[in-house]
Specification:
This protein is of the alpha/beta class. It has 10 helices and 13 strands. Helix content is 31%, strand content 23%. 33% of the residues are buried. It comes from Selaginella moellendorffii. This is Enoyl reductase (ER) domain-containing protein.
């Protein structure tokens, strides 16, 4: 807990896989004073641990000096970057509304599938996958969802999935061809990469889009020249590349979708105080698919 003139912050001095990377550490930093005009001091009470947080901590990324992260008691930001949340949204849900809901919303908007058409996604059992299912259902878009476990099929159908296929047992490409009368899906969302990118691209219509957003299988994406010849486009999708207009739209509409219970409450599997960040990261590694681990307090 912040005390006196000091506050807590989890900081990391060196990134990368070498010996110099000693990992993050909890330090005391000066507590911010009154904000300058145009700025806001935010007291942070809930912080989700995202997969990319763990990647940045362990791998080599050139991110420069950065002190605006959420793993601290306070952060001073520009008031234009503050998103006001309705009072009936809890801190735990509000802390999660940016990354996964914004990503699902942005991906579907960029694919721009007409009502009644199909979008395919792998990694469909993840928190993001479930959000995409719910948003697509709300907008009248059909989803073909790829999983690796049969026991998750009915659960996904209950929340709105149209088709759920087990990639380890079923001929996904043949089933997609049957469902779309040979045309292919409008677009695909690839959370897995590796060989699953190739499968996703094979299922997309000529001129369609494949957006890779994760690397659960491999850091390499594979795509057939045959699909490139069909003008199937493949790119990495990043939330940070969303236009200012799109970000404003998401900031307005996603809390409304949450309040209307289209998205629903976001699952939290565990909460840890900020000083227990190491245990929290271990837990997040084990339970990434079930929901978020939060650093609170």
């Amino acid at each position: 807990m912040a005390e006196g003139n000091f506050a807590r912050a989890v900081r990391q001095k060196v990134c990368g896989a070498g010996e110099a990377n000693q990992g993050p550490e909890l330090v005391n930093v000066p507590r911010p004073g009154a904000a300058e005009p145009g700025s806001v001091v935010v007291r942070i009470t809930a912080r989700p641990i995202h997969p990319f947080d763990r990647i940045i901590i362990k791998q080599s990324f050139s991110i420069g000096m950065f002190d605006k992260g959420s793993w601290q008691d306070f952060v001073t930001v520009s008031e234009k970057d503050v998103i006001l949340m309705p009072h009936d949204i809890s801190d735990e849900d509000a802390a999660q509304l940016i990354i996964n809901p914004w990503t699902g919303y942005g991906l579907l908007k960029d694919i721009n599938a007409p009502k009644g058409s199909y979008v395919l996604q792998n990694g469909a059992g993840s928190v993001l996958g479930r959000i995409i299912i719910k948003l697509a259902k709300h907008w009248g878009i059909k989803t073909i969802n790829l999983v690796r476990r049969d026991e998750i099929k009915e659960e996904l159908k209950r929340i709105g999935a149209d088709e759920v296929l087990n990639v380890t047992k079923e001929d996904v490409a043949a089933k997609v061809k049957e469902l779309t009368n040979g045309a292919g899906v409008e677009g695909a969302i690839d959370m897995v990469s590796g060989s699953q990118t190739k499968l996703a691209a094979a299922c997309v219509k000529s001129g369609g889009k494949v957006f890779t957003i994760g690397s659960l299988e491999s850091s390499d994406s594979v795509i057939s020249v045959n699909d490139l010849a069909r003008k199937v486009s493949h790119s990495f999708w990043s939330l940070t590349a969303a236009s200012g207009d799109m970000q404003e739209l998401m900031a307005k509409e996603i809390p409304e979708l949450f309040q209307a219970k289209i998205i629903g409450s976001l699952p939290v599997v565990a909460k840890f105080p900020l000083e227990d960040y190491e245990t929290a990261m271990e837990q997040a590694e084990k339970q990434a698919r079930q929901g978020k681990v939060l650093l609170v307090g």
